[in-house]
Fold each of these.
Amino acid sequence: MEKWEPNALEMMQAMFAVLNDPCQHTEAMFIHGAPARDDQLDYRLLSRVVQAKNEKFILNGLTAKQCQELNLSYVGFEEWQRLLRENNVAQENIIIMPASKHTAEESRNFLLLVKKNGWKKVAIASYPYHILRCFLQIIELIKEMDMIDLRVSCVTFYGIDWNRKLEKPVLNGQTVLGTGNVIGALSIHIAEEFKRIVAYAQNIELSGGQHFTRHAKISEMFTYLERRDK
């Protein structure tokens, strides 16, 4: 069995699809924990999501203290809840879901909440270079959880300086790929996301003993979009 890796055209098509997704009115939006520690970009993300037509806003329930202890980029739900309230989101429209340590856990807990509430149209939001992997993760999980008819859209913001230095602390200091904290310009963070997109889409027999929650390949993403947008 050959290792899967997307070609340049697939990556270009996939990035355009998630960055240009016409997110319509949704019943709930989950805002993924930040992939970098940057207050200004967090604020831009939160300011963007409140412009979308959503009934409920869902936050990862990790506290600021837990995030510090786990060495995560996310600052905790308390600050993001405050930013949503500052952007005129009513408290009753903010839902704090169970604490989730990584993207796969966030996605699974969000889908459990979706199933519990019977929502049919939802959205996910994150930084622009992170949103593709988030989407690939949730597509795989909706198949696993028998929720394939769920309509999931993507929301992000634009205009990160190419030379902006970003820092991504990683869970417990090391990922399942063996890499540590990511520090550097945007191009470095994009490269790290690409590594994860490739690694986490492999079948388990090609994982080399690594343990992760598989996500969809890009071809599977487009199959999902064709179904979603009919």
Amino acid sequence: MEFRYDYEYLLHLISCYIHGTTPQEKPEGISFENVFELGRLHEVANIAFLSVEKLKNKPAEETYNDWKIFYYFSAQRDELQRAERRLILDALHEKGIRTLEVQGSVMKKYYPSSELRMMSDLDFIVDPERLDKTGEILKGLGYSIRIPHEGELNAFNPNGTETEIHTEFFTPHMFNEIEMRYHNAVNRPFEHAAPSEDDPLEYIIDDTYFYLFSIVHILKHFETAGCGIRRILDIFYLKKHFSDKIDKDLVKRIIDENGMRENYNTVLEVEGMWFEKTAPTMDLSEAVRDIITSGNHGNSELFRRNRIRKSRSEGVKFAKLKVLKNYIFPDREYIYMSYPELRSRNYTLAQCRRYRFRMTLKNFRFSNIIKFLKSLLRIK
């Protein structure tokens, strides 16, 4: 097998692990350092390390040690998050608050080992009327709380654990026309779940809706700021575990009714090409480039490009100027997300913009303005 780029060798290492095959030795022209850094950026370096261990010619000592440390870091984070998850669930259930999980803590179950599926934070869904009480309980557990927008809260623990509390699968907020489409596709979370046998307040999502939410969540990232390798690998495990357990007609109908078919087909073909060695039926070059450059959580340049393309497809003229205007004069919800403390003070739009202007002057970097304008000009 020939590898032209560092990311191709990273994908090879991942694929060898998930299929239990022996990896090829690193060819000339490929950098172990770059492969590790890319894997770290996409939070899949821990999986790739298990294939690196099988190589006869391993990376240089410094890179090898950094890679090994990252692998153990992923295991340490997993252990910490699992302990914190149990602590939070017990505390919420003790106060009669029912919970539902649909993101990383569930996805982990379908990987060969829990620590291999890294996640940035814990995610729980609660009933909207119990959100404030949930925040109080988390404060009692030592978390500091911020409200990025209505219907959600973020919690930060001194031990480094982050938690997000949601009241819906997708909560519409600052980008309503995008968020509403995903919200309309998958909503009313507790209606698609049932109490677990062990705890009537710990709800378990239906298989079809877990698959559907997971896919739609990936598509949301892909359409907005980009999704990374880890999310494409999730598709591999979703297909492996749910292909014969879900209502495929329901999934197809929801995907088609909400205008997601093109992107759905694209990410499925990328997954097949990378991890199942299936030949693509379409040009995937741009999709692959976007996924590789997006990192695990996407980036602002992809976000702006996708916004501009969407506006153009809807017939909006001067789409770039519109993005520039929104950058200079953002709406209140956008400013609330950047400065959550302003929400609790109920600042008006004018007050928010004055505050943002003062903070921008305080942290002003001319290079950031140039970088933004250059990225805008590159968009076609």
Amino acid sequence: MPIFLNTLKTTLAAGVLAITASTGQADLTATEAAQVEKLRGTPVLSSDGGLVGLIQGASISGDKASLFLKPGSGDILRRNGHDIIIRTNTTELTLQGTQIILNANAQRVRTKANVQKEEDDQVVVQLPRI
């Protein structure tokens, strides 16, 4: 009986982790959008867990979102220390607790992001729909 209980506990734990690791493809609700706009210094991650940057602010209007990020040394979109503005659709964002998840894997964010312009202090990046 204890082996069965241990197996059941392990299976349930794996299921819970799988559910929390998966991301939804739904738009942010108005409440979530307001919460995202207030976040500062929390991580923005790709859906596979790669760090994109730390959020310094956001502007969400309708189905468009702009995230203002401070890059770090281990971030996917690091650009010579310049701040990064990510423009994407709200369908590509998920809020889990205080973390923002981009619905793309780290490799896709790194290779498919379209740099629209680079200025002295910031880089504007357009993320494609997936």
Amino acid sequence: MLMPPVEATTSPLTLLLGLAMLVLGLGILVPLVLVLLAAFQTVFGGVLERAAFRRSGLRCGRGDALIEQGDFAGAVRLFGEAFFLRPVRRDAELLSDIANYHSGLLSRLLTIADEMGKSVTHLPSLAVVDRLLAERLEIQLDYFRARKRRDTERLRDSQERLTKNQQLTRAAIDRLLNEIRSSSEEGVLYH
């Protein structure tokens, strides 16, 4: 025996109730997902920033090994690549580590320049790099203060300033590295 097909009809009230439940479910689900994403970014965003910073530290370590071997040119190249100029957006505690790290890098570059017979007075870009790194730290601190206050305009301004500072700092670092390298290419003048 064949049964005739059953045709299901839904009343407008059922459709309206289903739609209301869907909206209610999305109203609960979307904020929950946003909270989970924010927590994920807070926890893992800082972890990713620290991992990138550690990679810079590894370059610095390889540069130290090259100094021990007497390969100053190689060390200068690695130290130039080791500066950590990425914006820090999640882990404010990382800022003091980065500032200390940059001081150590500049100190290493000074040691190499001294070993190559280059005095600090012949490294005008050194002061510029130091100043730009200090400005970078201040901009980063402004960024975190604006983020805490949820000041989107200051956040955007800080991000733009960080980008500009990154470009200026990279150019100044490159000039400093060239000044140090030029010291090894200058001949010693005997009278």
